[in-house]
Structure formats: structure tokens, C-alpha cells
Design brief:
- The protein is about 80% helix and about 0% strand.
- It contains 10 helices and 2 strands, in the order H-H-H-H-H-H-H-E-E-H-H-H.
- Helix 6 packs antiparallel against helix 7.
């Protein structure tokens, strides 16, 4: 049990490291086409690694089995797409679909919210629903709002708040779609709609 918790903590700490992508988009690249191109290339590379891992014996499969098994979930070990690949698919889709500022926050909410919700939920499993912690989701939501408002200089504050709430709501409910994809798409969709009508 302790090993499972340690593995999940390690996985979510790596997840938080993905913050480099939305922050790079917000502060450095700022160009939708350039960022989308970069993410498409990363996603294609990741999908290629996934294909090799599943279909060919060799160094890549050995590397996954020996060194990355610690952070992989059981279904990923069996050959399903890893959370990292789903995250890249979610990031890429959000950047392509949504306006610059909306996409930045959709990516940010995935990187921060999902990781914090899982870590707090594991440490303090208060208010369990659908095998998730309401306290974890609430913590993820509050941190998303805090970070979102801290760097926001274009969107109305209520859009950030509703985006964070929608992202953590979709994280909480038991969908069959990987939440590394559903969080940025759903929160981005809510924010894009609000941006158009407010």
C-alpha cells in the first residue's frame, strides 16, 4: 500500500513538472502556431514511443519495464497509453482549439489541479465520492484559481474561476476518458464560451 502511495506521489510530482509547457506558452513562445507545432511534434514522438513499446521488443520496452514501471499504472504497464501521452494530446488539442489565453489556463489547470487533487486526496481522503476525495478536488480548484489569477492579465476573473471549477469537476466525476485529456478540453470549452458571451 505504501509503495502504491509513493508511486502515485512520484507520478504527480512529475505531473506538476509539466507546468513548464503552459508557462513557456504564456511567457516565452506566445505564438499559437509555433506552440501547436511544437506540441504536435512532441505528441507524435510520444505516440511513436508508445507504438514501439507495445509492438516491438528491445531497448525501449526494456527501459519502460525496468525504469519507468515505478510511475506507470497497471493498465499502462499492460500497453495502454501512458498519462504523459494523454497529457500531450490534451495540451495539443487545447492549444489548437482555444484562444491563446484560454489555452494557457486550460493547460495550467491540468498541470496544477489534477496533481494537487490527487496528492491532497491521498493524504486527506475526506468526503470520498466516486473513489475521489472532494477535499482533494477542492484543493486543486483553489490552487488553480490562485495561480490563474496571479498570472492573468487579459481574462475577466470570473472566467478563471469558472474554468478552474469546471476542470476540477470533470476530474472528480468518473469518466472513461482520461482526465489528462478531459480537464483541459472541458475547462477550456467553458472558458472559451464565457469569453465569447461576457
Amino acid at each position: 500500500m505504501k509503495k502504491v502511495i509513493f508511486n502515485e506521489i512520484l507520478r504527480k510530482l512529475i505531473h506538476i513538472f509539466s507546468l513548464i509547457i503552459p508557462l513557456t506558452y504564456f511567457f516565452i513562445i506566445k505564438d499559437k502556431i509555433l506552440m501547436a507545432t511544437f506540441l504536435i511534434l512532441l505528441t507524435l514522438f510520444s505516440l511513436s514511443i508508445e507504438y514501439i513499446r507495445r509492438n516491438q521488443k528491445g531497448y525501449i520496452r526494456f527501459f519502460f519495464q525496468k525504469y519507468l514501471k515505478l510511475v506507470l499504472r497497471s493498465e499502462e504497464v499492460k500497453g495502454h497509453l501512458t498519462g504523459a501521452t494523454w497529457m500531450l494530446i490534451g495540451f495539443t488539442s487545447a492549444v489548437i482549439i482555444f484562444d491563446f489565453e484560454v489555452a494557457v489556463f486550460a493547460l495550467l489547470f491540468l498541470s496544477i489541479g489534477d496533481a494537487v487533487a490527487a496528492l491532497v486526496g491521498r493524504a486527506l481522503p475526506i468526503g470520498k465520492i466516486w473513489n475521489k476525495s472532494i477535499l482533494g478536488s477542492l484543493s486543486g480548484c483553489l490552487l488553480c484559481v490562485f495561480f490563474g489569477l496571479a498570472i492573468n492579465n487579459t481574462l475577466p476573473s470570473q472566467i478563471i474561476v469558472f474554468g478552474a471549477i469546471s476542470g476540477m469537476f470533470i476530474e472528480l466525476i468518473p469518466l472513461k476518458i482520461n482526465d489528462n485529456f478531459s480537464i483541459p478540453i472541458f475547462s477550456g470549452l467553458i472558458m472559451q464560451i464565457l469569453k465569447e458571451i461576457l
